[in-house]
Write the structure tokens for this entry.
Amino acid sequence: MKAVQIFLTAVFLMSASVCAGTETAAVQDPAPVVQSSQPVAAPAAPGNIENKKPEASKEDEARSLIIRGLAMIQHGRFKTAEDSFNQVIQLVPDSYFARIYLGSVKLKLKEYLNAIKYYNEAKKIDPKKANAYDGLMEVYETLAVYPNAIKVGEEGLENGVDPLDMNSYLGWLHYLYGDMKKAEEADKKALALKDKEVSVMNNLGLVYFTMGRYQDALDLFNKARSLNSAGQMAPFFASLAYNRLDKFDDAVKAMQEAKDRDPRFTWDKALGYAGTYYPHGDPGRIEPILKKIGLTEPKIEQPEQPEQAPAPAQKADDKTDAKPEVTPDKADKKAE
């Protein structure tokens, strides 16, 4: 259930500092938002008076283009964002994050092969960062090509990428693929690294629910509920687990909590959750629970049929293309 996202804030993704100190220092991948706490050294006095742009201006320009591209993504202007990130690559040919953002844009545009291309390029530039692996897994998950996604996650682990990130995503992918044993193993590895990771608790709870271990699932969902007082998914999952344990009143209370946490919680949304998060198990009938908390099934209104104008009267001498009526005898012969 991990909703993996390629974060669109440079605070997290672009943490690399701008390096300098050598005579021919290459332009580094810009870090547009992270502000250095170190004082900026005063530039050396120029040897001659010329109006030249310093080399660092490329970094400034690339940084501005990254910020502009991120803003365009947030406004849904993906093509404009793409142009900005391509300009960054022209300035900084080995820019890791420009390729990460380009992969994200291509994924949003459903240009999956191009998304894979950019994420793979980023992975070659820095095989230790998680972002490229997350992006590739997200593409393959979107395409439901789970073996490819799992292979990417396993490659990340082999390359020493953040094991919490890789295992938590691998747990979700194994769950979607229907391998509950491997999903359980990956989720447990992730929780061993961070025992209060709510998303992994929910993932492992879904695994146990699918395995029929409803009490184990409920224990995890309730722990996630207590750790995250804002999320609506844990109480939703808990409601379905209570229902499977024939604790209808508790199921209603948990579902009410999910509704209270999400003002846009509706009948259709609840059924959508049940369909999305339980691909290999029966979530049970949740309609009685939804009715108990005041939700009603939306009525499907049939569109009114427009009145048809009467056919024009046919003249007696008009020729028609009408075929003769097939009598039962003729119909039987045709069937033969």
Observations:
- The chain has 16 helices and no strands.
- The CA atoms of residues 164 and 192 lie 9 Å apart.
- The longest helix spans residues 56-74.
- Residues 1-51, 313-336 have pLDDT under 50 and may be disordered.
